[in-house]
Design a protein that fits this description.
Blueprint lengths: L2 H7 L5 H4 L7 H10 L6 H6 L6 H6 L27 E5 L2 E4 L15 H6 L6 H13 L5
Antiparallel strand pairs: 1-2
Length: 142
């Protein structure tokens, strides 16, 4: 197993796992982690000095995340700017090819966290191939 794969599988994905390291109200975090998945690599976990510090706020679910009111799930209209799955073509001269929705640490402020909660990762290798074909044929490359 590659180093990154091992690190990925050792990540913390449940609020109850935080209790081994910090005093935490698990009951308040579980609904957030259910809606917006949680993943903290062991490296990032080691950077957290105390609850509420900047790395904690970046990684640990916060009940305030559920107070999103009438905000759109896709504030940048990435879905509308996606000509093929996992490609975002927002600007004429560049594209984003999302080769995975499985980040090693899921940041709580990520504007794509709605995608992560809906997608378990790449659908197929054909998804990558379709994205690569789109990039190759994009007018910006001609």
């Amino acid at each position: 197993m590659e180093h990154w794969q091992k690190a990925f599988t050792r990540s913390i994905t449940e609020p109850k796992e935080l209790a081994d390291h910090f005093s935490v109200d698990i009951d308040s975090l579980e609904p957030v982690a259910k809606r917006y998945p949680m993943r903290i690599s062991r490296y990032y976990l080691g950077l957290i000095k105390e609850p509420g510090d900047p790395i904690w706020r970046q990684c640990v679910p916060d009940p305030l995340e559920l107070n999103d009111g009438d905000l759109p799930l896709d504030p940048l209209n990435e879905e509308g700017l996606s000509p093929v799955p996992m490609v975002i073509h927002r600007y004429p001269d560049r594209v984003v090819l999302l080769v995975s929705s499985a980040c090693p640490t899921l940041c709580r402020f990520c504007m794509r966290k709605h995608r992560i909660s809906r997608q378990g990762g790449l659908k197929t290798d054909n998804t990558i191939e379709a994205g690569l074909r789109y990039v190759e044929q994009s007018p910006a490359n001609t």
